[in-house]
């Protein structure tokens, strides 16, 4: 009797101790015992960095490696944090319509709706990888009720291939994993029958199931991932999950408990003007504004030298016509105008004695006008640069560069006025020769490859169009397998 009672008490104590340990150790996971503990788990939140590193290179995967239209790359990183009731994709099952659209075309609009499912916590994305080797980084939130993470990224170009991870557990024995890295293999979505990266669209009817691509499966010699001499494919990508932070809810916010008081802005401004102490930079802003007003009232000073000495002409800042008149008047004082008494050259004939001197005076006046115009433009440029001090110009590299540009513009103006045009060399596009003959088939039986090439005759210059592809490959041979007694000749070494 006493022995039986002792066993009952021992069993009860062990049960109580086990329950207490669960309450202390459990930081995440779904093994809750009561409602209070479940609410405690919802207060736990973890932030993870998700890093996708891709290794699709010619050195690792030389077979049919795509280099153009498009080159080897990966699509946008798609991810969900969820519980066991949600599935982004699963090997051995058919893909959903949204995931099928993504792996075939790269479009993600069909996957937006599943992110609102109550079984998911966070829908996150990462940037695409524009080349075969690169990195895409995203961040994901998980809590005690959503400890699984699923990630996928499309392989491009491909019929329906992708890399991904399905329902990976980041909560182990009630604790969040600090960091973990998982190697990824290429996966087939089961929606297309293509064997190569650039295969034509050939839908699978009815839709098949998703499966893992290996070095020997599918066992077809035309497959882009078919390497029968390798025991397994090297990893085409890796996913790394790194815990960044853990959060704990300390206070629940309830909007109904907050008292909100509304104050009219007009009454506040009228009764209490803004004190000076609110804006610590108010004095500085007022000083800057005053300095700007003083600068706006300043005038340009043009120094002119006359026979009686040095005089100063002040012109308002924005009066361009007055500036031109001032400069023109200063030139009138500095250099005399060509008068009508300029001795003309002897006329060729008596009947045209009045025409030749008039033409000479007109030509001289036009030359003087052009010279004055150039001087005015140069003087205005010097005045606006603010380098005129005390009647002596401080020439610097900026003034010299400005005068050089001005001379180039005037040269261009003179050339165009004479009916000449500056000759510019147009861009030159790339040109290639004709295709050469097709090479011999790489296999004597079964499915092989044959190639042909062409050469560049004119290289592109000055932004011309780039060269088209110089090598073309197509299948050759027969779809029937080789017989056992017939050797297979393969001219390519992978």
From TrEMBL:
Q: Where is the Spondin domain?
A: 36-221
Q: Which SMART domains does this one have? A: TSP1 (SM00209)
Where in or outside the cell it occurs: the entry states: Secreted, Extracellular space, Extracellular matrix
State the GO CC annotations.
Answer: extracellular matrix
Which GO MF terms does the UniProt record name? metal ion binding
Q: Which PROSITE patterns does the annotation name?
A: SPONDIN, TSP1
User: What is the annotated signal peptide range for this record?
Assistant: 1-26
Listed under GO biological process in this entry are:
cell adhesion
Q: Which SUPFAM superfamilies match?
A: TSP-1 type 1 repeat (SSF82895)
Pfam families per the record? Spond_N, TSP1_spondin
Extract the InterPro entries matched here.
Spondin/Thrombospondin_T1 (IPR051418), Spondin_N (IPR009465), Spondin_N_sf (IPR038678), TSP1_rpt (IPR000884), TSP1_rpt_sf (IPR036383), TSP1_spondin_dom (IPR044004)
Q: Mainly localized where?
A: secreted
Q: Which domain of life is it from?
A: Eukaryota
Record keywords: Cell adhesion, Disulfide bond, Extracellular matrix, Glycoprotein, Metal-binding, Secreted, Signal
What is the recorded name of this protein? Uncharacterized protein LOC726068
